[in-house]
Each structure stands twice: as structure tokens, then as C-alpha cells.
Amino acid sequence: MNDGAFVDGFEPLAIAGVGALDDVAFVDVFEPIAIAGMGVALVILAFKLYRKNVLGLPPAVALGISGFLAWAWKYPDLVFTPDELRLPFEVAEVQFFVSLSICMTLFALDVFIGQARALAKAEEILALQRAELEKAAVMQQMAAIIESSEDAIIGATYDGAIATWNRAAETIFGERIKAKQGELLTSLVDLGVQEDVWRRIDDARRGQRVENFETVCERGNGNLFDAVWTLAPIRDASGDVTGVSVIGRDITEAKRAQELREMAHTDELTGLSNRRRFTLMAERQAVEARQTGKPFTVLFIDLNGLKNINDNLGHQEGDQAIKDAADIIRSTFRDSDVLARLGGDEFCVLLPEEEPEHAESPIARLQAMTDIHNMQSSRPYKVGMSVGIARFDPTEPISVEDLIERADAAMYDEKMSDRGHRRYRLMVCDDDPSVCSLVEVMFGDDYDVSKAYSGKQVVEMATRERPDLILLDLHLPDMMGTEVVKLLRNSGATKMTPIIMITGAGSSNAEIDSLKAGVDDYVQKPFEEDALRARMDLVLKRSLRR
Amino acid sequence: MFSESLVQLMQAGSLTMTLFAAVLILVVTRNHKDPRTRSRVALSMIGLALLLFAIPLYGEVLGADRFQRLGAVARIAASILLPYGLYSLGHHAPTALRPEETDE
């Protein structure tokens, strides 16, 4: 056991140790006492370190067992009384070290796990702190945004009482808002709209958002101003509504500017767009058409007979005719179409979208609406419109001015063509049925002829049917033709209907009286067909031109 | 019950385990965020105590009977140093080695 060179190398030291301690008998006595003392100390330490939370339960138990085994190691007789359980002291020593190593390993693991947990917790705390800092920075920024906002931002309690506000609110409402703290939000608005505003606040309290609500507010000096409010519920973390926030903006200037813009782009008489806006919209449409390749259409509409109405019925009626025409146009076209009055009796319509293939043409629709209007209207004139159409072809683009000019030219052509082809309604009134029949035979191919045989009848029929031209006999059984003319001229429906007086009387007085009564021309019997036709065309043309 | 060589082997092995545990504590302590010199001194004392325990054991394993007397003295010293080292470690542990208290 003690053989070998390695062991021999330690021999001098061993000899020195033995030599030094050989005579010291107390070593043999003191060693077990020291080990036993260590055992006691370890047991006490295990308890104390566990109490101080330095050791967890497993390492503390291991340390306590170590202490116990230290006794078992040196005083087996004291510890293990039963012989069958007695261990050799070397084995007890081994157990002591194993137990001690278990204790220390568990302690190291505890420390390691504790460190890992601490590290994780530190990271968590760091993340929380970082989040708090970020939140604080965001809150600070939000506060700065609210304070520097030009919109008044007001916070109210759930009851609608003013609680907080930003600087802009003080600017808009003045110092008055400070005095209003604790009062209802409605105290900031005009008395007349308070009920309406409270309804909106109530909506916000119920969790709804009320956006861009226009109202009238009161400044500190008592002046009223237009404002737009956005009301939103303020919710707590659980989602319950705890108050109401108001973002208010003074829109007085904006509204005035908008009104001015509207005025600059709107025709005052009809409410349609004016030439400026129409041109702008058409130019925009032309740009879009070039980009998308989709064509669009422009209608040029001319109100017929405006001059006639102005001259005979006055400018008030003329304005009314323009308004009627605008109403007809408005009811004919879609909201997406651009309707404009270019000036005088000229209107323009921009149709951005192509008409469906099987749909009625816009011109036919306009004509139908005009007819309906004329049938239902009791005005002293009939509204008539000539329409020209021009199409913007993106493959061959032209300027908007040229496009309008083309539509205008088309309208003029249509007007001329209309005069050549349109069947006018002719009413002939003579007590002699043969004259009526003769007129029907002569002009039945070109005119829709209706016949009357007395003054009373012609007045009734003309008022009801509103013919384009009346041929009137001077001598009627119930009254003179001049009296009929006066009656017709006094009736709103026939005030402007052209009348040609027909008579067999050769006196010049009859002609003068008739002209004075308001007839447009005078023809003597027997009349030539061509001469009468020429006069009728002339009177109709003059009427249309007017 | 146990052969002598087996017991010696077990003795050496257990002591190696203990030394390894001491090294483990050293490593853990070294990485601790708030190491204190005293806790290191305490650990050194524990390590020294374990080495002192090792002298007679390894002496026996290696077959040096003459270490027996020196070993006894070494054990006496180790039996003083080990609890003192542990006490010192525990005393300074609150700031250095005490596992962080968690909310759990």
C-alpha cells in the first residue's frame, strides 16, 4: 500500500509531520472532538442559513445531514447504537462528503437559478421601465399636441360638465371658459341650439361618436360664431364611458370663404354652376378622359323665346322662365352630371358617364320633361329649349372652349332644323265651318289643326291646348275678334301666342283695331294659301326668335 | 461489508464531488452581479477546508501511512475552517449570494 516512487516523494514531509506531531497526544483526542464540533456547527448553520433564506430546504437538509454524519463518522457508538446499523467510520466519512457535496451543489444551483430569475426579473423591470418611459414620452407628446392644437379640446365629465380644456379653447371661447368650469358643455353654445347639442352629448355618453356636428357657439364677449364639433366618449380601462371629449373648431372664416367660393362658382338666379365652374369641371373631366380613354358629352341648351318673354311679360317673368328651365334641366339629369348656366338663356350640361345603350337619349328626356312642365305650368309662356350635343373624344382631344362651341353650333343647327320640321299646333276660329275646313285642308299636312267656331270656344280651347298659332276671324257670332284677342292677351297661358286676324272686311279700321288689340298679323279673305303660309311662317319665326 | 480499496475509492470520489461542488459555487459566485470579497474569502476557506480533508484521504488512497498524523491535524483545521467558511458565506450572502427573492 505504501510502495511506489510517488509516495516516496511525500515521505520527507510526512516524516516531518509525524515527527512534529508524534509527541502530541492531544491530536488523537482532539480530532474527533473537532469533527464532532464541526457536525454540531453544520447542523446549527443549516438551521440558521435556512432561516436567513440563504439556503433552500434541500441544501439545508443536506447540510444538516452532513453535520449528523460528521458525528457518525467519529462517534459511531454515540450515533448508531444498534450494532446492525453501525457503519464503518470510512463509510460515514464518505457519506459526510457526499452529503456536503450535495448541499453545496444544491446551494450553487439555488444561487444560479436565483440569478437567472433575478436577471429575468431585472429585464422585465427594465422593459417595464422602458415602456413606462415611452408611455410618459408619448403622453408628454400628446399633451404637447393637445396644447399646441388650434382646435379647442374640452374634456367633460359623464354628466357633461366642463372639466378640462386646452389653450386653443381659451383662445376661442376666451376667459369665459374658466368661469364655465363645472357647468354643462351646452353653456358654451347659443341658447337656441342647446337642446340639439345636449342630444349629441347624450349620444356620446351612450358611447357613440358624433362627428363634424355644426353648431353655433358663443364667445367670451357674447358674439356668436359657427363651429364644428366632434364629440367622442371617454372610456376607462374597463371600457366604461366616464366622460365626453369635444374637439371644436371655429369655422366662421372657413364658412365665409366657402360661401364666397360657392358664390364665385354658382349662378345666383338658378343655383346651377356658372361658366367658371363648368369650364373647370369640364377641363378636369377632359384630363381624366385623356387618362382613362373614356369619352364624355356636353349638351348646349338654349332657352327659346326669352327675349319675347322679357319684352312682353317683363324681366321678372323672364327670370322665372330661366328658373323654370333650370328646374327642368335639374329634374332631367343625374346628380353626377354637371349642370351650369353659362349666361343669359344658355345652359350647359356635362355628362361624365356615357348613357346606357338602350336608355332614352338625354335630349328626348329633356324634351319630355319640358312637355310635362308646360302641361302642368300655368305660366303665361311655354318653355322651349333647343339642344346641341358634342362629344369629347379622348383620341382626338380638343379644348373645352372648342367643345362648348361645337355643342353650341349643333344646338343652332338643331334649332334651324327644328323650325323646318316641327309640326306646330294651329288653331283656326271662324263662324263659317267651311273656312275652318279649308284651313285644315290647306295646312293639315304641316300643322296639327284644331277648330273653334265662337269667341268663347277659342278662348277656352287656346287656354287649354296652348297652340303655337291662332288664325282668328274678326267677326264671330258671340263677340268681336278684337275682344277675343284682348281676352287671350289677358290670359297667362295665351298671352304670347301669336295671332293672325282673318276677315273679309276691307276697312282699314278693322286692321288698325286688330293690330291695336295685339294681333301679330292681318289677312283678308279670300286669302291665298301661299300668302297665308308665308305670313304664318313669318309670325312663327318671329315668335321663336323672340 | 466494504472492501478497503472500495472504501478508499469512495472516499476519494466523495471528496472529489465536494471539491467539484466548491468549484461550482466559485463559478456561480464569480458570475454573481454583486460579488463581495468576503464571500470569496469564505469560499476560499471552504475550499481550503476541503483540501485539508483531502490530504489524509488521498494520502491513504495513495498508500502513504505516514500522512495519518498530519491528516488528523489537517482534519482538525478543516473542521474549524469549514463551518467558519460556511458561516461567513451565509453572513455575507444577503448581498452577495442570497438567491433573489421573487414574488412567487
Q: What labels would you give this structure?
A:
heterodimer, A: 546 residues, alpha/beta, five-stranded antiparallel sheet, five-stranded parallel sheet, 19 helices, disordered N terminus, B: 104 residues, mainly alpha, 3 helices
How is this structure best described in words?
The complex is a heterodimer of chains A (546) and B (104). By secondary structure, chain A is of the alpha/beta class. Chain A is built from 19 helices and 14 strands. Chain A has helices at residues 5-21, 26-51, 57-74, 76-79, 89-148, 167-173, 176-179, 194-205, 252-265, 275-292, 306-313, 315-332, 362-376, 400-421, 433-443, 455-465, 481-490, 508-517, 529-545, and strands at residues 152-157, 162-165, 210-218, 224-235, 241-250, 296-304, 338-343, 346-351, 384-392, 424-429, 447-452, 469-473, 499-503, 521-524. In chain A, the strands form three sheets. A five-stranded antiparallel sheet of chain A has the order 2-1-5-4-3. Chain A has a five-stranded parallel sheet with strand order 11-10-12-13-14, with helices on both faces. A four-stranded antiparallel sheet of chain A has the order 7-8-6-9, sandwiched between helices. In chain A, helix 11 (306-313) runs antiparallel to helix 12. Chain A starts with a helix and ends with a helix. With 104 residues, chain B is mainly α. Chain B is built from three helices and no strands. The longest helix of chain B is centred in the C-terminal third of the chain and has 30 residues, at 67-96. Chain B is elongated and about 40 Å long. At the A-B interface, helix 1, helix 2 and helix 5 of A face helix 1, helix 2 and helix 3 of B.
